């Protein structure tokens, strides 16, 4: 039923599918309200055939609960969470842009590499989002200990406005939440894991900093940090076995090499102790070298890379806006009978509600006027008849004179039989 769009999904309308993953599918949608109110949203819905997988459903619910706690400009915002037709969904802000994996691929294809300023700006925004998540506290002031665990190119979105957003807390971990990973199970993308995460050991927030270092390494070098078959890659990640930054990017300043070495240290104790300290080193380098990257300059770069895509995406958004105001083309599973029943009931009642009101109005308008005229005529007729009768009786022999204006009671017959006899006598 999801192949033909748009269609209604609870109080939302799904306008188009954006992507499909291993656990969920992402739609472009809208929520409508009174007086033409409409807000564009992204709907992430667990795949229908996975709704009976308890572990996956719990992971999806955990993502929603965790993401709802995060309110930061560099983290995607969550608006709603619920279940419709037996499937769980998350409503989040709809962002127009490309994830970092598409950005790196397109930059390589067009021979338009990501500059040092843009790479540092993106990494700085990632550090800001991670620092907020790592340091987030509950209402009692206790640190939640949130770890993303999957900082990778597909989970970093760069919008056409130059914003940088961290996505997908689906495998994130927080202290106190029932999301303990089974022993021997590795969650996340191996190429962007820290050595301790790839080894299945306990991790802390510094694992995310290693992943952020991998992203910076790949943006600046234009190549993958770990390559090879899955098993070989896993072994290399565990040993932090990769080409040094000096080998892959000798043109970079020494200060940037130092940032990379510290973020990519195999031993967590040798890494940055927090995302804020990694951010401080990046900002200090930018300041010393008079580099002023901004969202505006990054937006111009991204739009130049994806100019063709923006045209088609803008057309899709316009079509989606029209579709959001039109009738849905398909019926949502489980609502077909109700929709058909409503349509039949509406059709059956149409003849009864069109012509009769005008006829009833005419009858109710004419009837009082008719009664009034009939009463007036009856009253006039009775007065003239009785006046003529009294005048005629007064002329009969033996009948006392009576005025037309008022005859005495003795002059009038006492009964109907006497009146008949009197009339016969007169005739």
Task: Please give the largest β-sheet.
Answer: 6 strands, antiparallel
Q: What is the end-to-end distance?
A: 98 Å
CATH homologous superfamily name of the domain at 97-305?
Answer: Transferase(Phosphotransferase) domain 1
Look at the structure and give the CATH class of the domain at 97-305: Mainly Alpha
What is the overall shape? elongated
Mean pLDDT: 79
Keyword list:
13% strand; 46% helix; six-stranded antiparallel beta sheet; 14 helices; three-stranded antiparallel beta sheet; Transferase(Phosphotransferase), domain 1; 427 residues; alpha+beta
What does this structure look like?
By secondary structure, the chain is of the alpha+beta class. Among the domains are: about 95-305, Transferase(Phosphotransferase) domain 1 (Transferase(Phosphotransferase), domain 1); about 355-425, no CATH class. Helices cover about 45% and strands about 15% of the residues. It has helices spanning about 55-70, 100-110, 115-135, 195-200, 205-220, 230-240, 245-250, 255-265, 275-290, 295-305, 305-325, 335-350, 355-395, 415-425; strands spanning about 5-10, 10-20, 25-30, 40-45, 80-85, 85-95, 95-100, 155-160, 165. The strands form two sheets. The chain has a six-stranded antiparallel β-sheet. Helix 3 runs antiparallel to helix 5 (about 205-220), helix 5 (about 205-220) packs antiparallel against helix 8 and helix 8 (about 255-265) runs antiparallel to helix 9 (about 275-290).
């Amino acid at each position: 039923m999801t192949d033909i769009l748009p269609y209604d999904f609870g109080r939302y309308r799904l306008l188009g599918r954006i992507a499909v993953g291993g656990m969920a599918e992402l739609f472009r949608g809208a929520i409508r309200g009174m007086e033409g109110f409409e807000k564009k949203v992204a709907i992430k819905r667990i795949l229908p055939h996975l709704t009976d997988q308890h572990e996956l459903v719990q992971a999806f619910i955990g993502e929603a609960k965790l993401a709802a706690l995060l309110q930061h400009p560099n983290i995607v915002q969550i608006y709603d969470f619920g279940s419709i037709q037996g499937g769980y969904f998350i409503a989040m802000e709809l962002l127009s842009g490309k994830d970092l994996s598409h950005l790196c691929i397109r930059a390589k294809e067009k021979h338009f590499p990501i500059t040092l300023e843009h790479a540092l700006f993106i990494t700085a925004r990632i550090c800001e989002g991670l620092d907020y998540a790592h340091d987030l506290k509950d209402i009692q002031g206790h640190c939640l200990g949130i770890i993303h665990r999957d900082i990778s190119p597909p989970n970093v979105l760069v919008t056409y406005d130059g914003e940088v957003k961290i996505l997908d807390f689906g495998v994130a971990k927080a202290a106190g939440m029932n999301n303990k990973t089974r022993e021997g199970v590795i969650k996340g993308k191996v190429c962007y894991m820290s050595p301790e995460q790839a080894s299945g050991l306990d991790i802390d927030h510094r694992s995310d900093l290693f992943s952020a270092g991998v992203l910076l390494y790949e943006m600046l070098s234009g190549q993958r940090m770990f390559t090879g078959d899955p098993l070989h890659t896993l072994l290399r990640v565990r040993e932090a076995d990769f080409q040094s930054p000096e080998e892959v990017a000798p043109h970079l300043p020494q200060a940037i090499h130092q940032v990379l070495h510290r973020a990519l240290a195999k031993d967590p104790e040798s890494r940055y102790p927090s995302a804020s300290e990694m951010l401080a080193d990046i900002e200090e380098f930018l300041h010393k070298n008079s580099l002023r990257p901004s969202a505006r300059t990054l937006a111009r770069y991204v739009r130049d890379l994806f100019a063709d895509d923006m045209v088609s995406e803008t057309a899709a958004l316009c079509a989606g806006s029209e579709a959001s105001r039109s009738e849905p083309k398909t019926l949502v599973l489980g609502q077909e009978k109700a929709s058909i029943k409503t349509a039949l009931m509406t059709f059956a009642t149409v003849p009864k509600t069109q012509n009769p009101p005008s006829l009833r109005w005419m009858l109710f308008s004419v009837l009082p006027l008719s009664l009034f005229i009939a009463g007036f005529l009856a009253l006039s007729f009775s007065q003239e008849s009785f006046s003529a009768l009294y005048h005629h009786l007064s002329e009969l022999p033996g009948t006392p004179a009576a005025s037309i204006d008022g005859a005495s009671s003795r002059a009038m017959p006492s009964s109907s039989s006497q009146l008949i006899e009197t009339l016969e006598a007169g005739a």
